[in-house]
Amino acid sequence: MSKKGKIYITLVLLTLFAIVAVEMTKPEPINWFPSYALHHKIPFGSYVFNEQLERVSNDVTTVERPPFEYLSNNTISGTYLFYNGGIAFGKEELNGLLDWVSEGNTLMVSAVDFEKKLLDTLNLKTRTINITNNFNNKYQVKLVNPLLDNTTIYKYERPTTFFHFHEIDTVKTSILGFIDKYRGEQENSKTTLVNAIKQSFGDGEIILNTFPQAFTNYFMLNSPNQDYTAGLMSYINTNKPIYVDTYYKTGKKFYTSPMYLFLSTKSLKWAYYIMLIGVLIYIIFEGKRKQRAIPIIRPLKNQTVDFTRTIANMYYENGKHKDIAQHKIQHFLEFIRNSMYLNTSEINNSFIKNLAARSNNSIEDTQTLFKLIESFNKKSKIENKELERLNTLIEQFKTHN
């Protein structure tokens, strides 16, 4: 390898190691994935909520199975808590939950929006909040119960889509909280958009909230926002069992990918990347060093025609016209047998008529050709012109086929 090539390789390697060093020392970016998982400590995980819930209640059960399956196989009572960015139960599962609530239990669901059947059952309608004049995505929530300090406003400043209840059954529904665009410290803020309600259902009750971010680490660790979450939870009886759903969660509890260990650990991840880069460099330079030109192997030519022409010229130059004629006649008869499917062992009038019909030649031309062939068979010597005439008649015969 030349000196210039070694310099280029050294510069490339130094550049790669510099990039790796910068990436390894760069602060880990914040993971804003909306997980809502109980074990996640990322901003939108629920690790803090899970810890606080276990402090206020001694009977908390995490349910990892679908609620339809869990309720079918277990006799339980208390509060079933769901919160996630999106939750869709399905017809049969929702009916099972509603039957369970009507027996005197509590269903609490916090999601961005709700399925149509649940809203229709409770005579509710939702609508997205208009983001006009709120391009900074700043919102504020509050509770209405005077026992929960309804004067405090809790702020949320992350881009998202919010829904509110714009039609409710005022006879059966109690309003628990509002949500509104954040207008600033010195402006009037009339929180008129309902985002949390409670409604009786049979002997139990259903609590709905369109602000699931209230259960995330990001919201609860910004004081005094934890009071808002505590206020929502105050509507359920913590002395009874609480069942927290983990089935309808965006974040996974178990990672099935075999590369998760490598990619989740910073040092192992970069060791893996360096190995891939090294393999790539090895393939490029080692393959270039060992590669050689592949010779072009031309296919063998078919020499049959050339060989036949050579033999024919030898016969012709030696004046063996009789032999050439015999070969020509034999090839012609073979042509008739293979193409016309006629027996050439006996040449008679019936054979001439069938051959003329199958080859699109006239009977006269066919008879002329075979009379010439018959005359050749009787002669011991053939002249040059006679051989040419035989060839001409045979070629004309074949052109009509």
CATH fold field value of the largest domain: Rossmann fold
State the major sheet. Answer: 9 strands, mixed
- Percent in strands: 5-15%
N-C termini distance: 70 Å
The gross shape turns out to be: elongated
Q: What's the domain count?
A: 3
Low-confidence stretches: 185-189
* Strand order within the widest beta sheet: 1-11-2-3-10-9-8-5-6
Structural class: alpha/beta
> Which percent bin holds the helix content?
40-55%
Average pLDDT confidence is: 83
Regarding CATH, which class of the largest domain? Alpha Beta
Over all CA atoms, what is the radius of gyration?
47 Å
Order of helices and strands: HHEHEHEHEEEEEEEHHEHHHHHHH
Tell me which CATH architecture of the largest domain applies here. Answer: 3-Layer(aba) Sandwich
Number of helices: 14
Give an account of the 3D structure:
With 401 residues, the chain is of the alpha/beta class. The chain folds into three domains: 3-28 and 259-290; 47-245, Rossmann fold; 304-399, no CATH class. Helix content is 44%, strand content 15%. It has a nine-stranded mixed sheet with strand order 1-11-2-3-10-9-8-5-6, with helices on both faces. Strand 9 and strand 10 (204-209) form a beta hairpin. Helix 11 runs parallel beside helix 14 (384-399) and helix 12 (349-359) crosses helix 13. The protein is elongated, with a radius of gyration of 47 Å. The two termini are 70 Å apart. Mean pLDDT is 83; it is low at 185-189.
